[in-house]
Design a protein that fits this description.
This protein is α+β, with helices and mostly antiparallel strands. The chain has helices at about 1-15, 80-85, 120-130, 140-150, 215-225, 255-270, 295-315, 335-340, 370-390, 400-410, 425-435, 440-445, 450-455, 460-475, 490-500, 505-515, 520-530, 530-540; strands at about 30-35, 40-45, 50, 60-65, 70-75, 85-90, 100-105, 155-160, 165-175, 180-190, 200-205, 230, 240-245, 275-280, 285-290, 325-330, 350, 355-360, 410-415, 420. The chain has a 7-stranded antiparallel sheet with strand order 3-6-7-11-10-9-8. A 6-stranded mixed sheet has the order 13-14-15-16-18-17, sandwiched between helices. Strands 1-2-12 form a 3-stranded antiparallel sheet, with no helix packed on it. The termini are far apart.
């Protein structure tokens, strides 16, 4: 009978292996203890919480006409700058549950003449408002502050029964049916019990996954989060580690005000993010939490970006108003995906104009050399988008130029401090498939809109990238040093039309093609890619030689 019992156990085990896996039930827990020096608190966070940089306020670009002079000015909604200044930390956990902690210092300043203001105007107004008061002290102030922050003038708060001797009072705010996944709290640490003055009011704002009932989340917050809140008895400074590269000029003397502003914003974006540091060179500020040998790769990238930038400048004149470019490199793909969101979590890198950051996804597979090459390819590609954003004074360039040039530089290799541009074998394969289908409408390609270029059809989108690269490669290297070619200098003509003449992207394309036989250009383009001899000459030609 013993063998029968063993057989029965085996049968049950095998049968169990075919049962469907139990689906994980979304939840919200607070069991990860962390210290927050900037707030003087110790709290429990979601166990898988990832620290996130503050939200970047949307930029409104104004064209200011002053007599015969035009200038562009970046402005912001004062409420966005007010929210950003008070934010102390932001974390996202599994199921995209989010917690934001905010130091409730002052009410939203009033009295702005315009709906959008510069940072300088905002700072002046805040200074004036500070003299007049506006501090958040009473519970009525808290309710007014919450109305300002949420944009809901009728939001109501309800006091929560005492959850901890250390935290009192606690006021709960529910935005209402329009935000069924959000709940906000205002609380104060109870220093009176220790004979000290009341602490600053703090807001904890939760955005909960739609898969979790809000009432369930509220019970977890009030059962686990608030009882964990306590004072930091010893508060280490909330400092930012700075690692200066060899290319950096010592000290801040001579540095532009814009550069110092960019650095301050970069520092603030990682101030409460454990393990993050930044490296500053003359043109780039790199933010990262990479550790160990990976830091060396960051230093190599910083140096390489300075070299490739000089090559960018041979194609687009540098804007003297450019302060510094920010590059953010998270240590893990998961952190990158959380930062860029689900819409862009498939990307290897991304230039985000709204944040003015070049984001790079860490490469985790392959040898050290392969990871380095992959990293540099992404950085050189997205780096051109970043450079062009400033060089063109934030104007959009034509898709064929913008993506073609980025693809062109993606294939750059730096050898002994000089830039060499290699062919893109993958793009050549895709281009040959397009040309094999017959006539290629070059005129229509020059006019593609962003929606058309970034087609939902992945094959069409990939083909557009390949054709943009092939076109720029041909115009940049296809006729070598032959200045008598009718196409010599076309790319420079396009850049001049945008930078000097102030033309739009499509107007600059028309100006570039003025006097050019577009049919013959298309034919010559095709013949080049069918001629191995001409491609060999192009490979040897250095468009960046002195």
């Amino acid at each position: 009978m013993k063998w029968l019992r063993v057989l029965l156990v085996l049968v049950l085990l095998e049968a169990g292996s075919f049962l469907p896996a139990r689906a994980e039930t979304p939840g919200l827990r607070f069991i990860k203890s962390v210290d927050l020096p900037s707030l003087g608190l110790r709290v429990n966070l979601m166990p898988d919480a990832c620290e996130m940089p503050p939200f970047s306020p949307p930029v409104f670009l104004y064209n200011i006409v002053d007599g015969n002079q035009n200038r562009k000015e970046e402005r912001y909604d004062p409420a966005d700058l007010w929210r950003l200044k008070q934010q102390a930390g932001r974390w996202m956990g599994r199921y995209e549950n989010t917690l934001v902690l905010i130091r409730m210092i002052r009410r939203l300043p009033a009295g702005f003449r315009d709906p959008h203001v510069t940072r300088e105007v905002y700072a002046e107004r805040v200074s004036e408002a500070g003299i007049a008061g506006g501090l958040v002290e009473s519970e009525d102030d808290v309710r007014g502050w919450m109305a300002d922050y949420t944009g809901n003038p009728v939001i109501k708060g309800e006091k929560v029964d005492r959850l901890s001797a250390r935290v009192d009072p606690i006021i709960r705010f529910r935005p209402g049916p329009a935000d069924p996944c959000r709940v906000a709290y205002a609380f104060r640490l109870n220093r009176n019990s220790e004979g000290a003055s009341p602490a600053t009011w703090i807001s904890a704002m939760f955005e909960v996954s739609s898969k979790i009932p809000l009432e369930t989340a509220i019970r977890s917050i009030e059962k686990e989060f608030f009882p964990s809140v306590s004072f930091l008895t010893i508060m280490p400074p909330a400092s930012v580690v700075r690692k200066s590269s060899s290319a950096m000029t010592r000290g801040d003397s001579g540095k532009s005000a814009d550069l110092l502003i960019v650095r301050k914003q970069a520092e603030e974006s990682i101030r409460n993010m454990k393990g993050w540091w930044y490296s500053e060179s003359s043109r780039y500020i790199v933010l990262s939490n990479l550790k160990g040998s990976s830091k060396l790769m960051v230093e190599q990238l910083d140096k390489a970006m300075g070299t490739i930038r000089a090559a960018y400048a041979r194609c687009l004149s540098e804007n003297p108003k450019t302060a510094a470019c920010v590059i953010r490199m998270p240590a893990t793909p998961g952190e990158y995906k959380t930062y860029v969101g689900p819409e862009y979590d498939w990307t290897g890198g991304l230039w985000v104009p709204a944040r003015k950051e070049l984001l790079i996804r860490p490469v985790v597979e392959g040898s050290s050399q392969e990871k380095r090459r992959s990293l540099f390819r992404v950085a050189f590609h997205e780096g051109f988008h970043q450079y062009a954003f400033y060089a063109l004074d934030q104007a959009d360039s034509a898709m064929w130029f913008n993506e073609g040039m980025a693809q062109f530089f993606e294939n750059a290799v730096i050898v002994n401090g000089r830039v060499r541009i290699d062919e893109d074998s993958r793009a050549i394969g895709l281009m040959n498939k397009v040309l094999a289908k017959g006539a290629f409408d070059l005129q229509a390609f020059f006019q593609l809109s962003p929606e058309q270029f970034y087609s939902q059809d992945s094959d069409e989108r990939n083909a557009n990238y390949a054709m943009a690269w092939a076109l720029v490669y041909y115009l940049k290297k296809g006729f070598g040093s032959d200045t008598h070619s009718p196409y010599s200098g076309l790319l420079d003509k396009y850049a001049e039309a945008m930078q000097v003449e102030g033309k739009t992207a499509s107007e600059a394309t028309d100006a570039m093609l003025k006097g050019v036989n577009i049919q013959k250009l298309g034919l010559d383009f095709r013949q080049f890619w069918h001629s191995l001899a001409r491609q060999s000459v192009a490979r040897r030609y250095d468009p960046f030689s002195p």
